[in-house]
Amino acid sequence: MLRLTKVELRRLLHRRAVLVLLAACVVIPTLIGIGVAYDTRPPSDEDRAAAQAQLDRDRTSGDTADSLRNCVRHPDDWGLPVNLTDQQVQQQCEEMTQPQLDWYLWTQPLDLEQQREEGSGIFVVLAVAMLMLVVGTTFAGHDWSSGSVSNQVLFEPRRGRIWAAKAVALAGVAGVVAAVVHSGYWLVLDALAGHRGERHGGALLMDCLQLGWRASVITALAAVMGFALTMFFRSTVATLGIVFGVALAGGMVLAIIGVTDAWNPALNLWAIVSNGVNYHAEVACPGANPGGEQCFEERTLTLARGAAYAGVVVLAVGITSLLSFRRRDVA
Amino acid sequence: MIETTGLRKEFRGRKGGPRVAVQNLDLAVPAGGVHGFLGPNGSGKTTTIRMLLGLARPTNGTMRLFGQPVPEHLPEVIGRVGAVVESPKFSPSFSGRLNLELLSDAIGAPRSRVDAAIETVNLTGREDDRYKGYSLGMKQRLAIAATLLKDPDLLILDEPTNGLDPAGIREIRETIRALGDSGVTVLLSSHILAEVQQVCTSATIIGNGRLLASGEVQDLLGSSNAHRVVTPDPARAAEVLTRAGLSPSLDAGVLRVETDDASSVTRTLAEAGIWLSELTPLRPDLETFFLQLTDADKLGA
C-alpha cells in the first residue's frame, strides 16, 4: 500500500495541470494578501496632504455651510433627538456635516480578527479548497480519459488499493499544501500588522492559524471529494458540473423546499473552518398557534456538528465511489 | 495455462435489453507456444481477454489462469501475466520512461527492468520523449515493453501489430515467436490470419461470442494433395490426365489435380506433348478455413 501511495504521489506531482493548480494555490492567496496589505496601508504624507487640501476645499464650500444651517434648523430631519439644547444641536450638526480628515483617508487599519471573521480569510479558504477540488478531479479524470486506469489495474488488480492509494496521496498533498499556504498567509499578515503597530501575535495569531489548519482539513476533503466523484462519474466535466451546481444552487434549493440552514452544506463547512457558526432559524413565535406567526431564533452550528455532517457526506460519496470502481468494468 | 468454462458476458444494450458479447465459451490454452485467438471484429475476443485480466466481470462461467480461479485469485497470478489490451493506454503527458517506471514501481520491479524493456522494444533514445508525441508504432512498442516489466510466464497480446509499419510488424512477430520458443506462453488475439498462421502453433476461432474451432493450426487446416495445373490446352490436358487415372477438374481454364506424386502430372503431360505453364501445390490456408467457419456461423446465427 505504501509502495502504491508513493507511485500515486509521483503520478500526481508529475501532472502539469496539477502543478499549475498547486502554483495557483500559492499565487491567489499571495495576490489576496497583497490586496489586503495595500487596502490597509497607513496613509502616506502625500495621502494626508491631499486629504487635507480636499478637506479645506470642502469646508469652505457653500454646500457644507448650507448643510450645517439646514441641520441646525431641522435637527429631527437629520435624525437628532428632539430634546437637545441649541448648543448640543450645533455641536452634533457640525460633527455630522463638517468634513473630517478621516473621511478623506480611505484606508482602514489591518485588523487580523476582521480579516479572519469576514475578510480575506474566507476568500483564501474558498480559493484553495476549490482549486484542490479541481486537482482531485483532474487527477482522476486524466486517468480515465487517457485510459491508463486499465494499465494500472493490469499491474494491481486489487482496485480498492489503487483507489485508496490515490486518495491518500491526494489528501496528503492537498492538506499539506493548504496548511503551508494558510499558515504562511496568516504569519505574513501578522508580521505586517506587527510592523504597522496593529494588534497581532499571541492568541489572535493562534486563532488565525487554527482557522487555516481547520480549513486545510476541509481542503483535503474537498480534493478527495473531487477525486471520488470523478472516479464514480469517470468524467471531469460531470464532476465539476455537479459540484459547482451544488455550490451555487444547493443552499437555495434547500431553502425553497423548506430545509433549515442546519443542513446547508456551505454553512456546515464554515462551522468547521470557523469553529462554529451562528445562523437564524425560523421558529414559531412564543405563544403563537402552530402555523401562525414566525420568529427568527439565533442558533449555533458547532464544529462537531459540521464535522459530522461533512464526514457522513464524504464517507457516503467515498464508499459509493470505491464500490463502483471495484465492481464496474474498466474500459 | 488459460481455461474458461461456460464463460458469458452480457452488456446492457441501447434499448435496455442484454447484448451478449461472449456466450458459453470454453477456452483452453495449453502451456508453452503461441496460441492464436481469432475472430472477426466484434466476435468477443477483446471482451474475453478483458474478463481474464479482471478488467470486466463475467456474467457467468468460470475462468482459470495457471490453474487458479480468477478474478478471485488474480492478485496472486497477475505478476506472471503481461498483457496489451486493445490500443496502448498511457498518460500522454508523461514520457515513455516515466509511464513504465510508474508501472514497475507499482509491482516493486527493479528499475533495470525498465531499461531492459525499453531496449528490447527498440525505444532507446526516445524513452524520455512525451508519450503523446509517439507514433502509433512506438506506442504499441511501449505497451509491449510494459508487459515485459513483469518478466511474464504468460503474455496476452490483443492485436499487437496494429499500426506498425512492415518492419515493425516483422520485428514484433519475431519477438513473439522468440518468446514462445523461450517457454513463455503467448495468447495472440488477431484478425490478421496470415499473422496467426505464421506465428502460432495452436489457435482458437470464435464468432459471435461462441467457440467455432480450436486446436493445433496444422490440424485445423488439415492436409491437401491438390495441385493447380495450367497449360496452353487445358481441355486436352484434362483428357490425357483422366486417361492416366488422375481425375482432374477444370474450372475457368485451370486444372485442379489431386495427387501425392506431382511428377506424374509433368511426365504424363510431357509424354502427350503438352507443356506445363504452371504446377503449384494448393496449400490449405487459415483464411479460407476461417472464412468458411465464420460464414457458416453467420448463416447459423
Structure description:
- The complex is a heterodimer of chains A (331) and B (301).
- Chain A folds into two domains: 2-42 and 109-327, no CATH class; 45-104.
- Chain A is 74% helix and 5% strand.
- Chain A contains 14 helices and two strands.
- A two-stranded antiparallel ribbon of chain A has the order 1-2.
- In chain A, 33% of the residues are buried.
- Chain B is an alpha/beta fold.
- Chain B folds into two domains: 2-221, P-loop containing nucleotide triphosphate hydrolases (Rossmann fold), CATH 3.40.50; 226-281, Alpha-Beta Plaits (2-Layer Sandwich), CATH 3.30.70.
- Classes of the chains: A mainly alpha (331), B alpha/beta (301).
Main attributes of the structure:
heterodimer; A: 331 residues; mainly alpha; two-stranded antiparallel ribbon; 2 strands; elongated; B: 301 residues; alpha/beta; Rossmann fold; Alpha-Beta Plaits; 6-stranded mixed sheet; 4-stranded antiparallel sheet; 11 helices; 36% helix; 27% strand
Question: Could you say which structural class the secondary elements and strand pairing of chain B correspond to?
Answer: alpha/beta
Query: How many structural domains can be distinguished in the coordinates of chain B?
Result: 2
Give helix % range of chain A: over 70%
- Form type of chain B: elongated
State the assembly state of the protein chains. Answer: heterodimer
Main β sheet profile of chain A: 2 strands, antiparallel
Q: What fraction of residues of chain A sit in β-strands? A: under 5%
Distance between the termini of chain B: 31 Å
| Percentage of residues in DSSP E strands of chain B | 25-35%
Overall 3D form of chain A: elongated
Given as residue ranges, the uncertain stretches of chain B (5+ residues, pLDDT < 50) are: none
Q: Could you say what the CATH topology of the largest domain in chain B is called? A: Rossmann fold
Short description:
The complex is a heterodimer of chains A (331) and B (301). Chain A is mainly alpha-helical and 331 residues long. In chain A, 74% of the residues lie in helices and 5% in strands.
